[in-house]
Every structure is written in structure tokens, then in C-alpha cells.
């Protein structure tokens, strides 16, 4: 295949009490804190219609991840057999996109308080989408 | 904020009977066909552990989308009030990432048959993730 690349620009950034990757739980529901998602002023018109109480999907760029990993021990368990990264949620993968289903807890201008979320402080956000179905979404 | 960009490389491509954006339903569950996801040989080791019957999340790069749209009529309904793109699943958005929860129907080498999926023929795939919970997953 030809060498193609797409350019992703952050639409915002996460402010979280989690400062290091080592502190972060594997998944939001495993004791992660809430965080503030600060949306860039240039794209904040895109937030219209998002309300407190909504469930949304935040897509992040896991900027501390390695991109050369194709096999990993799921959940960092060295005793587990190696699995392909596409069969796991490892942050280390060719395109380190993170998917986080969170609740909107409060909204202040261009900042959404969301959680729980396992991404660390300073993680770039590249998209936000609504959850479509409670039971079988994305 | 500073002008930052991240570079996304396709990990594969979709082969679908849907050839034009106008033919595609809004969501996979709205009558979309199955498609073949052909994974690049360089990253196909990352598929290990994915099995027929699995539910996976395919993340696409919606290459026909416009990136300058911040408000849209949901579901192309001109009578609906304008909403921010982050409150909709519109393909037109600053970073045109598509999220598709699909079932793996068959596997032939580096090709996964998946569906139903509303993305059109030739859509680049940038990530694949497992569904973690049937009821509440990102």
C-alpha cells in the first residue's frame, strides 16, 4: 500500500489529577477520576447541544503511547499470553487513539467536566461524539 | 493554543458495496451492508486474538468528509435545528473519525468480513478495538 498519512489536530485538552501513565487505571470504570475537557475556542461552536447528564464518547490521542507495538500482554499482565494490539485496549498501537465513554458532569463555557476517565493530564482530545444507544453503541 | 498536528497512518481499508456517500445510511444498524476490512500486512500481527463472532469497534478516517463544519442539521434533516457537530455523528467535523461497532463474520488471512457498516468503499481504517462490555462500552 502507498504511504498515506492523515493530519489530526487537537480540538481540546484534558486536565486531570492523573499525572503519570503509571497512575492511570486500565479503564475509566476502574476507579478513574473526573477531568476537565477544555475545548479550543476555534471549534467550541461544535459543542452546542451537549448538556449536563449526557453520555459522550471522547476520542483522545494517547500522546505517551508507543506506536511500534503490535503484540502485548493484555492488562499489563506478563503471565497472560501475547495478544494482537487490535484485540486489546492497549494505548500502545499504530495509531494511539483512546476511546472513553464518559458522563458530562458540568459545563462552564468551553470546559466540560467529564468522567470517570483514565487518560492522563495533558492528553489531547481529537473528537467528541454522542452515545447513540445506551445498550449497543460504537 | 499552539498549532499541533498528529499523523495518522491507515492500518487497512474497507471494501464495501456502498460506493457513494449518498447511498450510505446514517448508521450501520439502519440497513447497512457487510464489508471486508483488509488489514495492511505490516500491522496484521495486531489482529491475533480476534475471532469470528467477536464484536469490535472499527475506527475509520471519513475521507470524503468536510473538516470546516462546526454546526449541522442532525441526520441531514433541514427542518431540524442546527446542532454542534460534537453533539452529532455527522461525518463532517474537524477530525473526521468514524466509529463503527460491528460483528466479525469471517476471517481470511488479513481480511475480516464485518458488518453491518455504513462507511463507503475505500474508506481508510485507522484502528480496531475490542468491545469491552456488551452494555456500556465506548
3D structure, described in words:
2 copies of one chain form a homodimer. In chain A, the strands form 2 sheets. Chain A has a 6-stranded antiparallel beta barrel. A two-stranded antiparallel ribbon of chain A has the order 5-6. The first copy, chain A, is 0% helix and 34% strand. With 138 residues, the first copy, chain A, is an all-beta fold. In chain A, β7 and β8 (111-115) form a beta hairpin. Chain A contains no helices and 9 strands. Chains A and B meet through β1, β4, β6, β7 and β9 of A and β1, β4, β6, β7 and β9 of B.
What descriptive keywords fit this protein?
9 strands, mainly beta, 138 residues, homodimer, 0% helix
Counting DSSP H or I runs of 4 or more residues, the number of helices of chain A is 0
Strand segment count of chain A:
9
Helix percent band of chain A: under 10%
**What are the secondary-structure elements of chain A, in order, as H or E?**
EEEEEEEEE
Q: So what's the overall shape of chain A?
A: globular
How much strand content do the residues of chain A show? Answer: 25-35%
Sheet having the most strands of chain A = 6 strands, antiparallel, barrel
Let me know the average pLDDT of chain A. 93
Point out poorly predicted stretches of chain A.
none
Strand order of the largest sheet of chain A: 2-3-8-7-4-9
Compute the separation of the termini of chain A in Å. 28 Å
Report the oligomer.
Answer: homodimer
Specify which chain pair forms the largest interface. A-B, 54 and 55 residues
Compute the CA-based radius of gyration of chain A. 16 Å
Class derived from helix and strand content of chain A: mainly beta
Amino acid at each position: 500500500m502507498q504511504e498515506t498519512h492523515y493530519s489530526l489536530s487537537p480540538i481540546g485538552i484534558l486536565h486531570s489529577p492523573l499525572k503519570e501513565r503509571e497512575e492511570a487505571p486500565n479503564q475509566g470504570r476502574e476507579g478513574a477520576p473526573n477531568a476537565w475537557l477544555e475545548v479550543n475556542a476555534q471549534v467550541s461552536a461544535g459543542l452546542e447541544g451537549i448538556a449536563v447528564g449526557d453520555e459522550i464518547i471522547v476520542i483522545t490521542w494517547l500522546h505517551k503511547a508507543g506506536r511500534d507495538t503490535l503484540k502485548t500482554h493484555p492488562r499489563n499482565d506478563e503471565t497472560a499470553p501475547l495478544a494482537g494490539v487490535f484485540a486489546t485496549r492497549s494505548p500502545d498501537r499504530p495509531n494511539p487513539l483512546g476511546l472513553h465513554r464518559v458522563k458530562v458532569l458540568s459545563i462552564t463555557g468551553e470546559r466540560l467536566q467529564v468522567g470517570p476517565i483514565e487518560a492522563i493530564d495533558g492528553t489531547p482530545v481529537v473528537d467528541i461524539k454522542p452515545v447513540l444507544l445506551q445498550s449497543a453503541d460504537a
